[in-house]
């Protein structure tokens, strides 16, 4: 198992994939095991956000 400093991160500010802790934590999403997974972070974040919103709506409804 590699440490998070060796994994990939998606930079929310620049939209670029980074390896390790290149940017402040507030600007990063991750960690991801591969560069490809990190590059797909925007889609993953949208899907998770939609699922959480739907779950909250069901609980409130």
From TrEMBL:
Region entry Disordered, spans: 21-61
Basic and acidic residues bias (residue ranges): 45-61
Descriptive protein name: SPOR domain-containing protein
